[in-house]
Task: inverse folding
């Protein structure tokens, strides 16, 4: 596939890995912020091909994973109402609430639908004027513009029976929180290319200055990630700390200004709780007063009283901060699997635990045998290690 | 009060994931159905069940063998399948064609020559007569193409809102020629793993229609009867001995589900190379857009074969000369290592586990 295959090229990836190997002289811990990157790394087996000095730790950038349990319970309460059609991105349906998930609500007769675009929920609203269509507006700066646009269009088109349950979060405050935390030790960051496509990377410049830590804007294919790691390692080895762009085919410093404008038109910054991590100041979005009529929590005020506590068995908060690798969690693969997940990190296609479970178990099986990971398949001509 | 023989985790009710061909469905079968229905024949866990010539593992004749005097030396393949696809008509086929080909293919995966089908039609009040006529015509045409006779049928009508227009159940009987021994547990270390063509066409054809996705070329379902292809593959063997160890049609759950089932049944590992698996560019593109993995997407006219290394090239050549196998490709091997696990060698030379899908395929958020 054009514009994808080029960035999955084995020779290009191998050349970049070779250069990383030549550049690195000491151990570095680099966090890929985005869950999409985590999945790509494990799906392609990139982590096995990196030199031992470079350790990739997985960041909090999985929208499904960081959406608080409380909000899932609110979604479930709304979706269970006979007068509501609850509309969501597919990933959210299997995330466990305190008692059930949205699939369970659907099986019990709730009207729960999956869409690819929030604008589809306006169509559903027009076709079902006797119901209120509630869209689950979650995600980072990547989903925020389209979600905001749906609200703007609802207002322009006079669609009254539409509301949004909002739990938007933003990346830079989360990176600040990680850098402030005494438990987290990360030498450099691979910033999420899609978020930066929308927001640009000017937001990271003050962070880099304040914390003296390199940030490299990085894409999602193996070549992109290998290039991001190489640029980060080069900075670390040279003692530099700058914002660099390894995803220039998609990202400009200023980002997508019309997209930023529509976010700002509908939403304003606010404190947000992150699942497993806690409240991070000014790390999310809520409706501006001008659009408050579309706030599902105001439309259905009874959900405001729902307050839920997390299961203590699930250590996903530590996984999301890169303190713990998924396979270091005692529940990993035992009490917690994709079929019966304890936390959202085991559910989402971008969750680090799910990525480890899906792609990494063979490597896990190999390590106890001889204490060293070994090349997994016999064909030596393909082996880069 | 009914109690579940083995506790089912998580869901007190059926959810869509229980029908997805993945782990949830496997759990449902293993924990709820299997303990109640268990018998030697059902225990074969093939796409169709082979009846006759059946021996217990310790060499004793099973109950069914006592009936062999009636059946003689013949071995029957028997299977059933239900079709609930929406929309009823999609690019490349319709539910009628699918209902015939699905059951024909399940029979063919035992190496059987499909002979007889039954069809049960569950019709929803309000279904246009013209639509039913079109689909029934498809059933008739597909039977003719596959060389099977529809010899038993049933029609029921349910109230408006209690069915998605039309559901079809088909059951099928076929005859297995002497010398053909195909079963999910017959894979041997070193065997070659072959797919008969491009993966993911049917699932993406349906999903594109459902989601209103448009591409430069329309993605068409690959629905096709594979019995002739299997006959051509069986004929590669000398003295009427089939060279095929395992066959599976890669329907729900796609290539990933089939390879996992075969690895589990054979208690062996499977390794394959991602880039050797044929995937149409438009299917690849649609999967990229929706955040899906083509290895998990359904096919309706593709099979996975496990054959001894020595005959792999001959089988592949036979497949490629057949119209339903022209894109056949060898993708990997059965290995003695990592029993029950399927490992893919990735495009950049890494490796990963290719697991059973958990439940419903879910599109990603971003």
Result:
């Amino acid at each position: 596939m054009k514009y994808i295959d080029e960035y999955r090229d084995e020779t290009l990836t191998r050349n970049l890995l070779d250069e990383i190997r030549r550049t690195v002289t000491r151990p570095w811990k680099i966090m890929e912020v985005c869950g999409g990157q985590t999945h790509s790394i494990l799906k392609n087996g990139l982590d096995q091909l990196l030199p031992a000095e470079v350790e990739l730790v997985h960041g909090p950038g999985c929208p499904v994973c960081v959406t608080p349990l409380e909000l899932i319970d609110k979604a479930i309460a709304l979706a269970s109402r006979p007068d509501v059609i609850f509309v969501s991105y597919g990933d959210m349906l299997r995330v466990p609430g305190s008692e059930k998930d949205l699939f369970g609500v659907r099986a019990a007769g709730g009207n729960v639908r999956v869409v690819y675009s929030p604008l589809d929920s306006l169509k559903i609203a027009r076709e079902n004027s006797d119901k209120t269509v509630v869209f689950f507006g979650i995600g980072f700066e990547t989903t925020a513009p389209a979600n905001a646009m749906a609200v703007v269009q609802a207002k322009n088109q006079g669609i009254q029976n539409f509301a949004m349950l909002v739990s938007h979060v933003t990346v830079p405050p989360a990176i600040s929180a990680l850098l402030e935390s005494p438990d987290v030790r990360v030498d450099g960051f691979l910033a999420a290319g899609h978020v930066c496509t929308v927001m640009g990377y000017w937001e990271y410049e003050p962070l880099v200055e304040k914390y003296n830590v390199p940030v490299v804007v990085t894409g999602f294919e193996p070549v992109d990630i290998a290039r991001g790691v190489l640029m980060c390692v080069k900075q670390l080895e040279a003692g530099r700390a700058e914002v660099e762009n390894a995803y220039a085919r998609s990202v400009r410093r200023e980002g997508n200004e019309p997209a930023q404008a529509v976010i700002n038109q509908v939403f304003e910054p606010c404190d947000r709780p992150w699942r497993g991590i806690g409240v991070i100041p000014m790390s999310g979005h809520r409706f501006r007063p001008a659009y408050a009529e579309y706030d599902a929590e105001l439309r259905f005020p009874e959900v405001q009283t729902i307050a839920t506590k997390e299961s203590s068995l699930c250590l996903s908060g530590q996984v999301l901060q890169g303190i713990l690798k998924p396979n270091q969690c005692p529940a990993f693969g035992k009490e917690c699997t994709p079929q019966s997940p304890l936390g959202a990190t085991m559910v989402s296609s971008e969750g680090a635990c799910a990525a480890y479970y899906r792609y990494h178990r063979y490597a896990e099986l190999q390590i106890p045998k001889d204490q060293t990971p070994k090349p997994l398949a016999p064909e030596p001509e393909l082996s880069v290690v | 009060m009914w109690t579940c023989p083995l506790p089912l985790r998580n869901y007190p009710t059926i959810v869509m994931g229980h029908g997805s061909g993945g782990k949830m469905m496997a759990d449902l079968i293993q924990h709820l159905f299997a303990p109640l229905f268990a018998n030697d024949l059902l225990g074969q866990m093939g796409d169709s069940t082979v009846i006759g010539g059946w021996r217990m593992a310790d060499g004793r004749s099973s109950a069914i063998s006592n009936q062999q005097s009636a059946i003689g030396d013949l071995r029957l393949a028997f299977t059933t399948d239900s079709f609930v696809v929406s929309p009823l008509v999609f690019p490349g086929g319709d539910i009628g064609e699918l209902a015939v080909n699905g059951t024909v293919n399940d029979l063919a995966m035992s190496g059987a020559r499909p002979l007889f089908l039954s069809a049960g039609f569950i019709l929803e009040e309000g279904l246009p007569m013209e639509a039913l006529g079109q689909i029934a015509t498809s059933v008739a045409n597909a039977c003719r193409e596959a060389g099977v006779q529809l010899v038993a049928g049933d029609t029921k009508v349910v109230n408006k809102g209690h069915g998605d227009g039309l559901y079809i159940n088909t059951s099928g009987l076929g005859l297995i020629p002497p010398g053909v021994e195909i079963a999910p547990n017959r894979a041997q270390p070193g065997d070659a793993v072959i797919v008969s063509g491009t993966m993911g066409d049917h699932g993406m054809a349906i999903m594109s229609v459902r989601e209103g996705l448009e591409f430069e070329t329309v993605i068409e379902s690959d629905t096709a009867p594979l019995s002739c292809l299997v006959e051509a593959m069986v004929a590669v063997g000398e003295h009427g001995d089939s060279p095929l160890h395992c066959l599976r049609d890669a329907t729900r759950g796609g290539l990933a589900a089939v390879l996992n089932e075969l690895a589990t049944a054979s208690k062996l590992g499977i390794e394959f190379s991602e880039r050797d698996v044929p995937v149409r560019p438009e299917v690849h593109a649609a999967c990229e857009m929706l955040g899906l993995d083509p290895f998990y997407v359904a096919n309706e006219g593709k099979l996975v074969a496990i054959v001894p290394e020595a005959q792999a090239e001959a089988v592949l050549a036979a497949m490629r000369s057949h119209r339903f196998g022209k894109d056949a490709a060898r993708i990997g091997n059965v290995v003695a290592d990592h029993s029950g696990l399927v490992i893919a060698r990735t495009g950049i030379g890494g490796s990963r586990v290719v697991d059973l899908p958990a439940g419903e395929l879910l599109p990603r958020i971003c």
